[in-house]
Amino acid sequence: MASYSSFPAAAAAVIPSYASSSCLFAPQFFLPMPCSVQPSRPASALRCSSSGPGISVSAPLVIKKKRKRYRKLYPGEAEGITEEMRFIAMRLRNIKGKYTHKLDRSSAGGSSGSDSDSEVRGSTAEDSDRGVGGDEEDGCDEDGETWSPSMEGFVKYLVDSKLVFDTIERIVDESSDVAYAYFRKTGLERSGSLSKDLEWFSQQEVAIPPASDPGVTYSKYIEELAEKSAPLFLSHFYNIYFSHIAGGQVIVNQVSEKMLKGRQMEFCRWDGDVLISFQDVRKKLNMLGEHWSRDERNKCLKETTKAFRYMGQIVRLIIL
Hints:
Elements: H1 7-19, E1 35-36, E2 47-48, H2 81-91, H3 115-121, H4 151-174, H5 178-181, H6 191-203, H7 213-228, H8 230-259, H9 274-289, H10 294-315
Antiparallel strand pairs: 1-2
Helix pairs in contact: 2-10, 3-10, 4-6, 4-7, 4-8, 7-8, 8-9, 8-10
Main location: plastid
Keywords: Chloroplast, Photosynthesis, Plastid, Transit peptide
Protein name: Inactive heme oxygenase 2, chloroplastic
């Protein structure tokens, strides 16, 4: 057995044989260190070398946020529910004997996708009779022929109008619904004024008939609506006053010029500035409308069409 002192000599004899081999000390045997530690940085901050074979560094993962798509607004929506209803009313005006058949929303956007959207877009002239403010204000019927009001028809119009105003004003005064309380004593009330006009006709020995079908039907519909939905009732409440201020009083004054020698009707007189009073009602309704869902607002727009249909039927009593 070789002694310890002879081991270095034995090792020296063996090592050269390995030195000539390329399996151990050949340059390609040594792989470069994949990572180097920077002394000035913490141990967790390792920098990977991109020059080492078999090591690839991928780009950081970028997460793209999905863009939020906003619903396009209805005409007038930015200003409030009353402006939306005004757009509907203006589209109900008669154009050369033909109504527009669809609600045009190209100026303010597309659809919100709700069920009520299709109802609003489907509101057509066939669903509404002639509203206040159409060709009848110019004294013409649908065929462009001049129409002539009758005293009997005019009184029927006043009687049915009084029934409608009696109904909405009574509901607002007597209801326990908080929403209706905002619209008490607005200065727009017409029931008392109509009573004075009918009393004057009675003094002139003009027979005062009972309310006819258009007024009775509309009043019943309003009462039923008031019990089911405040927004829908208020849609009619607003549009009834709007139709009279914007067009109804024009018709009344024209009839008065033709048959009553221009007598000033109480129906068209207000104690204060009617436009200021009406603006206050608009403001309050817009305030309430901010708390209504889009579906409720769409239904209010459809009720706007119905309101002008019913009021249009009452106006036509003048020439029947």
